[in-house]
Fold this sequence. Notes:
By secondary structure, the chain is of the alpha/beta class. It folds into three domains: 1-67; 112-302, 3-Layer(aba) Sandwich (Rossmann fold); 311-383, Orthogonal Bundle (Arc Repressor Mutant, subunit A). 48% of the residues lie in helices and 12% in strands. The chain is built from 18 helices and twelve strands. The protein has helices spanning 2-16, 21-31, 34-37, 42-49, 61-74, 91-94, 111-114, 131-145, 161-171, 193-201, 219-232, 246-256, 274-281, 291-302, 311-319, 325-340, 346-353, 357-369, and strands spanning 79-83, 102-106, 120-124, 152-155, 176-179, 206-209, 235-238, 260-263, 286-287, 344-345, 373-375, 380-383. The strands form two sheets. Strands 1-2-6-5-4-3-7-8-9 form a nine-stranded mixed beta sheet, with helices on both faces. Helix 11 packs across helix 12 (246-256). The longest helix is centred in the last third of the chain and has 16 residues, at 325-340. The radius of gyration is 21 Å and the shape is globular.
Amino acid sequence: xxxxxxxxxxxxxxxxxxxxxxxxxxxxxxxxxxxxxxxxxxxxxxxxxxxxxxxxxxxxxxxxxxxxxxxxxxxxxxxxxxxxxxxxxxxxxxxxxxxxxxxxxxxxxxxxxxxxxxxxxxxxxxxxxxxxxxxxxxxxxxxxxxxxxxxxxxxxxxxxxxxxxxxxxxxxxxxxxxxxxxxxxxxxxxxxxxxxxxxxxxxxxxxxxxxxxxxxxxxxxxxxxxxxxxxxxxxxxxxxxxxxxxxxxxxxxxxxxxxxxxxxxxxxxxxxxxxxxxxxxxxxxxxxxxxxxxxxxxxxxxxxxxxxxxxxxxxxxxxxxxxxxxxxxxxxxxxxxxxxxxxxxxxxxxxxxxxxxxxxxxxxxxxxxxxxxxxxxxxxxxxxxxxx
Length: 388
């Protein structure tokens, strides 16, 4: 019952601060849990909310009751709400500063088995897909599917490139996730209803959104959902885009999250290749010049083709006989954090995992000696793909 109460309160906070997720993070960090937010006394709400005090009227039992009714209805459409403090929430997304308080997930696959078991690569681009873009989108997805295990393909269920990526993945037996800009019950565009239902019914696939039921497909929602696509992915591949567009935003967000960015170069006079060419010229994206080089780069940098769900097993197998459960859990958290934040410093790592700096130095030193991670002179840590 306590876990359900926390989930319900997270769902309520997602509705209240959906456009300001950092406020939810701050409240939970300060108060310890989502349920504690709704136990605040009136005199404390204004002080704690500060500039967000306009929401004070929503911090009430009615909001929690509404969220509880919503959770009951979600089960009827194969939808689960997963809060960002719960087990099963995607680790890659959790480490983004603007990660949503929760996700609505439509899938026949249990949420705890959906994320983290595979690498995840986003394939995005223009809605006005060209024959060149379509050919390369299909080649990219199929080539990624040749890896064992194949990565999960992330895209946005939109027209053009997104549809091509999802369709190619499904036809090739590759798991794929569509990130929506609407509530979980609304498929947009309507012509994609069939492929959306196929994704819900196919094991390992899903539809995901941070927007609550009843949310309409407004332009601002499509822009905001791009952070979810970038946040769920270890790397983003942009096939075609104008200088300004959703694909460009997703690529730049991925770069800001320290994720890999790859772009397909095109003709200088092609407006739908201009964005890709600009990212390559500016050093934001690596040029996709061949599938062989792309898969090799993904393999070396992100361990593509290796199972991403084995961190706990690796730690337990190597250190289980010499360490207690708490120490093993700390080592596991450190490895997960380094995997999701390539290049994180030891000092940043200590703050992120909430352990003393000296302990972070000790553990990263052990992991580096044993070959699980690499460190440079600035104490920046990265996963060694040979082992992970």
